[in-house]
Fold this protein.
Amino acid sequence: MKIELPALQAASMGATTARAAVYQTIFSRRDVRGQFLSESIPDDVLSRLLTAAHFAPSVGFMQPWSFLLVRDPAVKQQVHDAFLQANAEAALLFKEEQQDSYRRLKLEGILDAPLNVCVTCDRDRAGPVVLGRTHSKAMDLYSTVCAVQNLWLAARAEGIGVGWVSIFRASALREILQLPPRIIPVAYLCLGYVSHFNDRPDLETAGWRERLPLEQLVFLDRWGETGGDRTACLRDNLQRDQRDVTALQSFQTLLR
Ligand SMILES: Cc1cc2nc3c(=O)[nH]c(=O)nc-3n(C[C@H](O)[C@H](O)[C@H](O)COP(=O)(O)O)c2cc1C
């Protein structure tokens, strides 16, 4: 079946609403560490999330991902213990004056979330030579991250919070989940319905770090070249859009 572009691009009410819904989902997605409700995610909803992930782009159409669902409290407890150990090590890596603030941050919802999902990458899924991965071996890992982002956005649209936990020794996660050597644990996610989504990243609210001005991150033709007058209009737009989204104005304003 072909998707008719003119229909998608039509300035009809339906197309505008669909466009707004995509931006709204993107801008209101959050990394969720608290606020989880105990209600479990029904299978039909979980199926939609995993299907959204499975329709992500992948190098050479490799589809290197698998989704290991973790529901057993005993397994979650082991994963949580592995987090606690890695997190204690992590705190010591920051400057002394930052360590207390770091320890105050909540950086996981492993036991609070009804479902944990480990998204993995099978580096051998399509044999040793993969179209598109010939010169950059990491492309299969990047593909898996695309699947994670699809799942994250679909979850937001379903009112389900997702939190990514990466503070583990990979060997610990590998042992607990009994992953074979060729399987890389790319993302450990905590999923569940939430009481609310915060407006801003938790790390921003906690004063850990601020969102960078996008216009300073865009170059023209060569690294570090701003483009001067040739990008002045774009820069004005970037500043305005970031300001609008940050001020939580209607996402419709972005669709001018
Ligand atoms: C690859 C990756 C790893 C992350 N690991 C953690 C983590 O271990 N713990 C945590 O609390 N948040 C983790 N996060 C979430 C980020 O802290 C979060 O995305 C960022 O602060 C921006 O907030 P937002 O996602 O709510 O916009 C991770 C995000 C990504 C993309």
User: Anything to note?
Assistant: DSSP finds nine helices and four strands in the chain. The mean pLDDT is 94. Residues 211-251 form one domain.
